[in-house]
Amino acid sequence: MSFIQYIARIQFGLESRLTIPHELELAGIRRPLIVADRGLEATGVLARAVEAIEGSHYPRFLDVPTPPTEEAVLAGLARYRAEGCDGVLAIGGGSAMDAGKAIALLATHQGPLVRFLARTGGSASIGRLAPIVAVPTTAGTGSEIGRGASVTLDDGEKGVFLSPQLVPVAAVCDPELTIGLPPRLTAATGIDAFTHAFEAFTSAAYNPPADAIALDAIARIRAMLPRAVSQGGDLEVRSEVMMGATEAAMTTWKGLGATHALSMPFDDLGLHHGTVVGVVLPHTVRSLRRAVPAERFERLCAALDSSPDGLEDDLLAFARSLGLPGGLAELGVDRGFLPTAAAIAETTPFNQTVPRRLSTAEYLQIAEAAW
After folding, report:
1. What is the tens place of the pLDDT at every residue in 248-300?
2. Could you give the domains of the chain?
3. I want to staple 257 with a disulfide (CB 3.0 to 4.6 A). Which of 158, 163, 199, 287 is the partner?
4. With a threshold of 0.85, does the pTM exceed it?
5. CA 19 and chain centroid, separation
6. Beta strand segments in 71-175, E
């Protein structure tokens, strides 16, 4: 038996941000808490995102760090309750959207957040949330239509939360809101989206619709992301990358894999998630080649115009073309941390959806190669 679900409303295209008032109304949200960050406010992107509702003076919570923390979520929850809010309007990258999801979760559930961790079965305790409308300003995380959220807990763990209830009721994807994203962040968020589709396709879960979407996303992002990095003001290119990221998010119902499992302990060090993902991805190919059926592996390579024997080198070249770091050492990772990272990777929810579960020793081999 397979579980196949696609449930989010998506408004996509230039000026789709003007549909936000309509989506709030459809969701039954009369007084949303706007969840974003100070950087988005400083660049003017937040003002552009909410221009259609600017006169409403909705309350805001802008103290969202990257990555989002439990402390920040509780501060946002206090603002939500003090302002009498009845829903969340999350605007930004993955941090803002994940924080918005956690605020909506605690607004309707008794905490603490640790109760709802996926790794301990907490997903079953997640019921209906306060409604969320999500507006991405990057083309990468897919949190705007995804069933997951990640928040760093008070004990330092990067907590992963998974439930269909965490899917926002609507996503408003306006490529114009990504125009000001710097090249490095364009590359890092874009390769994160690419990896969502890559790892979803290689997952053993049975979901042919997701597989078809994943292959299109892989080809689309591979072709257009380097242009988005070098030609960030091109709206057509930005639209193509955002569509690829949206497609990639649709595929993650199949689950992710070794790259995301191994990224989690490095995320806990404060490193940018997408950057780590881009560095690690090529070095997971050897484990995939042993676990993914040859026919599927060939279909994956065809989408990338690569060969089974040359895929690792092609992915390394792709990362280099985006200006990503050459290894974890370049990011300042101490080699002595690698065994700890490998042990954590084995325990993550993502190691449950790899084509074949990997051991700590296998994750250490990948980490050493990526270092």
Report:
1. 999 988 889 999 999 989 987 888 889 999 999 999 999 998 899 999 999 99
2. 9-177 (3.40.50.1970), 182-370 (1.20.1090.10)
3. 199
4. yes
5. 23
6. 87-92, 132-136, 148-152, 158-162, 170-173
